[in-house]
Amino acid sequence: MPWNDNANPGPWGSPPPGDDGERKDVPARRPQNGGGRGPRGPGPDLNAGFEELRRRLRDLFGGGGRGVRPGVIVAIAAAAVALWALSGFYVVQPQEEAVVTTFGAYTRSESPGLRYHLPTPIERVEKVPVLSLNRLDLGGGGTADTDIPQESLMLTSDLDIVDLSWTVTWRIADASRYLFSTKNPEDAVKAVAESAMREVVGKTELDSIFGSGRGKVQLQTADLMQRTLDGWGAGITIVEVQIKSVNPPNEVLAAFRDVTSAQQDKDSAVNEADAYRNRVINEAKGTASQITQSAEAYREQAVRTALGDAARFNSIDAEYRKSPQATRERLYLETMERVLANSRKVVIPGGKNGTTAPIVLPPDLFRPRSEPAAPSAPSAPPASAPAPEGQQQAPQP
Question: What CA–CA distance (Å, rounded) separates 46 from 12?
């Protein structure tokens, strides 16, 4: 069954009256049953909908040769101007700074927030991430596969070749200068970094770069880069220059490793010798200090002993001048007591004709010195006068 057969309307109902020669400006009447959805009636009439839209547009724009209505033109123009004016609103993110240009010339910079500029083409806005850190890698990755010889190979002050790879961290300090001072800021930073590193390395010896002078090279390179960019007015701040790897050229890498190993062995031997020297010196200084202190202590003791003996002798001499006999006897007794302090002998003074009465000695007197002495009875007093000096008598049983 063909779909263009007007005799059989098909599932979508009859065609609009305008299709069979009737008036086209009369809209077709829709079915009263809601468009005939489902099995209860015919479906929506698409041709009638399009015809209705055409009629309304024709009436709006003054159909029938009457021309476009002025109100429509004003409304369209007002809507276009409103949309054009609203296009000037923009948002600046917290890490950004907006640069506004008027007909291509710099006008102002805007801080983060909701901002407005005159719509294009009067003013244009370019947002610059001023708080973001940018990283630039130079010289490759420090290996034979990733090295870029044009960037990494440099000549030192002692005419040696070194293979360097380093990174430069930078950020935008002034957005307007960053956009208008240089044509390609990233290429400018790269060129300045390579030039500054070559200049600093050319004034530094190879051993210093491999040793403790690496930090100095980094600081000098960053300072030289900053001064160069400031002279250009680039609006860029160098945050850090960091050397990732320092190697000799691949052609002499094996020989350089042998030299480095020998240098390390030499440093190890020197360090061991220094440690032994320091230990021996410290021990000798300690021994000398101990001997000196002992000698000083002995000297002090001898001086004080001599002074004490001299004072004692003067005291005894003064007493002797007063009473010679008593002083001689006291000196004799003190000397015998000191001499016979550890002796097992007992000295009993007697008269010229010997003792006249027996003397009873306490039994504890003959016990070993290590045993505690028991309380003893008092000994009998001597029966005769004291014996002359130097005379001894054996104890009586």
Answer: 9
